[in-house]
Amino acid sequence: MPAIDTASLNKFNDWRILVYGKTGAGKTSAAGILTGKTYVLGFTKSYKVLAGKFEQGWQIDARKPMEDLDEWARQFDPTQYDNLVLDDISNFERIWFQERGRESKNGISNELQHYSQWTNYFLRFIEWVFDMPLNVYITAWEADHTITAPTGQQFTQYGPDMRDSVRNVAMGLCDIVGRLIVKPDTGERGVILEGNDGVFAKNRLDSRKGCKVEDLFNFADPNV
User: Fold this and answer.
1) ∠ CA(88), CA(93), CA(96), 5° rounding?
2) Furthest CA-CA distance within the chain
3) What are phi and psi of 219, to 5 degrees?
């Protein structure tokens, strides 16, 4: 592997952003703000809200998600695009386990080994995607998780709806993890970019603690 020229690095190139929120909050619609050639890999049909706003796309077949993802990987050329959108990645986890359950002894329930298999499968997939030379925008559903602090205190925290074994790694690999919220009185949509005990969020690209959805991809750091 060649040495890294740190002097020429630009942290705003090939970013990885994960945004989670309630269903219908506008996570997928935010991808329409992206500039450049955008490819959408959808795990549900929510990408329809982006009609006319992306170059090409692929919807994973819920009946054979692993085989279909392999087929997509064989034909996708990341050098032809500026952005890749992984839309509704929480549903990817669900259809993966659903298909595995069909292969079990009773044809319904998941078996113990499926959980470790999912961890290995997902982490190989996400690390492969994150090595691509383009921007990656991921959307996920919202769920609350029980978090145990080093002191032993437990609290509930909002985060992406994924199993802990893959959620923590995925969040760690992303440059930004934000929670999309909608103000009930105005309908204005914003993204929380700084976390606390109740919300997981982080931003290692610039100094913003939050922003309007339309400004999510407008990076600005006064310290640079």
Assistant:
1) 120
2) 58
3) -80, 140
Closest CA to 193 of 168, 218, 222: 218
Interval 187-199: pLDDT, tens: 899 999 999 999 9
DSSP labels, 6-61: GGG--TTSS-EEEEEESTTSSTTGGGGG--S-EEEEESSSGGGGGTTSSSEEEE--
- 210 neighbors 16 (Cβ within 8 angstroms): no
> Is 40 in contact with 47 (CB distance < 8 Å)?
yes
- What distance lies between CA 52 and its chain's CA centroid? 22
- Asked if residues 219 and 205 have their Cβ atoms less than 8 Å apart, the reply is yes
The predicted structure's pLDDT at residue 73: 96
pLDDT tens profile 29-50: 999 999 999 999 999 999 999 9
Cβ contact 39:55 at 8 Å:
yes
Element (H, E) at 90: helix 89-102
Tokens of 217: 């991809």
In angstroms, the CA 37 to CA 23 distance is 26
Q: Report the distance separating Cα 98 and Cα 85, nearest Å.
A: 23
Q: How many residues does the chain have?
A: 224
Residue where the block lists tokens 């009930």: 184
Cβ of 127: how many Cβ atoms within 10 Å? 12
Give the pLDDT confidence of 117-149 residue by residue, as tens digits: 999 999 999 999 999 999 999 999 999 999 888
